[in-house]
Amino acid sequence: MEKSDVKVKVLGSWSSPFVLRARIALNIKSVNYEFLQERLWEGKSELLLKSNPVHKKIPVLIHGEQPICESLIIVQYIDEAWSSGPSILPSDPYERATARFWAAYLDEKWFPSMRSVGIAQGDDAKKAAIAQVEEGLALLEEAFAKCSKGKAFFGGDQIGFLDISFGSFLGWLRVTEKMSETKLLSEAKTPALLSWAHKFCSHPAVKDVMPDTEKLAEFSKTILARFRGAAPPKS
Amino acid sequence: MAESSDVKVLGSWPSPFVLRARIALHLKSVNYEYVEENLESKSELLLKSNPVHKKVPVLLHGGNSISESLIIVQYIEEVWSSAAPSILPSNPYERAISRFWAAYVDDKWFNALRATLLAEGEEAKKAALAQVEEGLALFEEEYEKLSKGKPFFGGDEIGYLDIAIGCFLVWIQVIEKFSEMKLIDEANTPRLFQWADGFSSHVAVKDVLPDVEALAQFGLKLRAKFLKTPQ
């Protein structure tokens, strides 16, 4: 039995796709944990500042006394610490490298391009931003074919590292579609991803923690207002 | 052991990221062919092997191409898992810590390093240098915790974090030269100072470190080119 009596906490926020990654991973491993919602506008908690002094960001996983930071690092930690549960990373080194590659791409290139859609001012800027997001989705549609090998998920029969890394952004993707009145995932351009997205969101490890699109859209309006008005939002 | 034709590294001699791949292969005693890329005129092979980013390093192994230096290092560790030494610790928490600091290097610290070379104006340069020093102070602290009295972040042997940080040592020397200040020295960062010496003279490292004079010349050219190009 692996440390089942050791307390597991996640410091996070219901709206953060990065926090979602940690929660989905823990759900896959059937690990019970306490979710500590950070106050959104009243400043970061003592526990957060103490647990992640370098970045002061969520998510933080606290396992016993040990804090682990950075969402993709947390997911890998969860996979390795609860090694008897279903595997999150593939076992083949090349498939692992591929999953890591696309996860890094998502964080460094694709998610920022999606955020740009929300921030873009004017039709031209919005169009350009959307084009970039779609370019990325085309790459990911291709990657899905290679990684899934005909199965339901990037990870095969079960959701894995890349499913989690990408799927965690689906709430915000839907908000972006709503706000920009554009379908980013579609039957025409990304049929495989469209089908994958639906399966991912209905997965038992995901459905109860994926934020509701309406609620997220409302929240996004609040952030945008603050971003354009006063202080920048907490990332 | 893999035939050297089985394993290729596409690289560029000034790149610290390429060094990471090479050091990891050396640690595992893997023979490989090193291909020097002209980044002003990228080869078909590079563009085909890394179509998304079109960057070096790329590791070619059998029919596979792997990109992104830290991903390459982990791949090397996992493929040649039976070859000592282990690059990552075996304990999941220690692995997470190594990964955390390597990510910090790439996500935060590298930008500051780059800015010391490319920043326009004294203010910007000073700010960048301060950030570099901040990072080094953090590494000095972490080194104490992680090395536990041994010569490297990885302990007795070079590990993931040694590779992630150590690949920048010659660039740091170049920046010290240009800014006329010491970044790693016995006074401010005594542990890193010793560690840097051990790392640079390690058998898996010393033959691939670029020459500091040559790198300085390259740095000047890079800066000139960067400042001419509209941002």
Automatic annotation (TrEMBL), chain A:
<protein>
    <recommendedName>
        <fullName>Glutathione S-transferase</fullName>
        <ecNumber>2.5.1.18</ecNumber>
    </recommendedName>
</protein>
<dbReference type="InterPro" id="IPR004045">
    <property type="entry name" value="Glutathione_S-Trfase_N"/>
</dbReference>
<keyword id="KW-0808">Transferase</keyword>
<comment type="function">
    <text>Is involved in the conjugation of reduced glutathione to a wide number of exogenous and endogenous hydrophobic electrophiles.</text>
</comment>
<dbReference type="InterPro" id="IPR036282">
    <property type="entry name" value="Glutathione-S-Trfase_C_sf"/>
</dbReference>
<feature type="domain" description="GST C-terminal">
    <location>
        <begin position="92"/>
        <end position="219"/>
    </location>
</feature>
<dbReference type="InterPro" id="IPR045074">
    <property type="entry name" value="GST_C_Tau"/>
</dbReference>
<keyword id="KW-0963">Cytoplasm</keyword>
<dbReference type="GO" id="GO:0009407">
    <property type="term" value="P:toxin catabolic process"/>
</dbReference>
<dbReference type="InterPro" id="IPR045073">
    <property type="entry name" value="Omega/Tau-like"/>
</dbReference>
<feature type="domain" description="GST N-terminal">
    <location>
        <begin position="6"/>
        <end position="86"/>
    </location>
</feature>
<dbReference type="GO" id="GO:0005829">
    <property type="term" value="C:cytosol"/>
</dbReference>
<dbReference type="Pfam" id="PF13410">
    <property type="entry name" value="GST_C_2"/>
</dbReference>
<dbReference type="GO" id="GO:0006749">
    <property type="term" value="P:glutathione metabolic process"/>
</dbReference>
<keyword id="KW-0216">Detoxification</keyword>
<dbReference type="InterPro" id="IPR040079">
    <property type="entry name" value="Glutathione_S-Trfase"/>
</dbReference>
<dbReference type="Pfam" id="PF02798">
    <property type="entry name" value="GST_N"/>
</dbReference>
<dbReference type="InterPro" id="IPR036249">
    <property type="entry name" value="Thioredoxin-like_sf"/>
</dbReference>
<dbReference type="InterPro" id="IPR010987">
    <property type="entry name" value="Glutathione-S-Trfase_C-like"/>
</dbReference>
<dbReference type="GO" id="GO:0004364">
    <property type="term" value="F:glutathione transferase activity"/>
</dbReference>
<comment type="similarity">
    <text>Belongs to the GST superfamily. Tau family.</text>
</comment>
UniProtKB/TrEMBL annotation, chain B:
<dbReference type="InterPro" id="IPR036249">
    <property type="entry name" value="Thioredoxin-like_sf"/>
</dbReference>
<dbReference type="Pfam" id="PF02798">
    <property type="entry name" value="GST_N"/>
</dbReference>
<dbReference type="Pfam" id="PF13410">
    <property type="entry name" value="GST_C_2"/>
</dbReference>
<dbReference type="InterPro" id="IPR045073">
    <property type="entry name" value="Omega/Tau-like"/>
</dbReference>
<dbReference type="InterPro" id="IPR010987">
    <property type="entry name" value="Glutathione-S-Trfase_C-like"/>
</dbReference>
<dbReference type="InterPro" id="IPR004045">
    <property type="entry name" value="Glutathione_S-Trfase_N"/>
</dbReference>
<comment type="similarity">
    <text>Belongs to the GST superfamily. Tau family.</text>
</comment>
<dbReference type="GO" id="GO:0005829">
    <property type="term" value="C:cytosol"/>
</dbReference>
<dbReference type="GO" id="GO:0004364">
    <property type="term" value="F:glutathione transferase activity"/>
</dbReference>
<dbReference type="InterPro" id="IPR036282">
    <property type="entry name" value="Glutathione-S-Trfase_C_sf"/>
</dbReference>
<keyword id="KW-0216">Detoxification</keyword>
<keyword id="KW-0808">Transferase</keyword>
<feature type="domain" description="GST C-terminal">
    <location>
        <begin position="91"/>
        <end position="231"/>
    </location>
</feature>
<comment type="function">
    <text>Is involved in the conjugation of reduced glutathione to a wide number of exogenous and endogenous hydrophobic electrophiles.</text>
</comment>
<keyword id="KW-0963">Cytoplasm</keyword>
<dbReference type="GO" id="GO:0006749">
    <property type="term" value="P:glutathione metabolic process"/>
</dbReference>
<feature type="domain" description="GST N-terminal">
    <location>
        <begin position="5"/>
        <end position="84"/>
    </location>
</feature>
<dbReference type="InterPro" id="IPR040079">
    <property type="entry name" value="Glutathione_S-Trfase"/>
</dbReference>
<dbReference type="GO" id="GO:0009407">
    <property type="term" value="P:toxin catabolic process"/>
</dbReference>
<protein>
    <recommendedName>
        <fullName>Glutathione S-transferase</fullName>
        <ecNumber>2.5.1.18</ecNumber>
    </recommendedName>
</protein>
<dbReference type="InterPro" id="IPR045074">
    <property type="entry name" value="GST_C_Tau"/>
</dbReference>
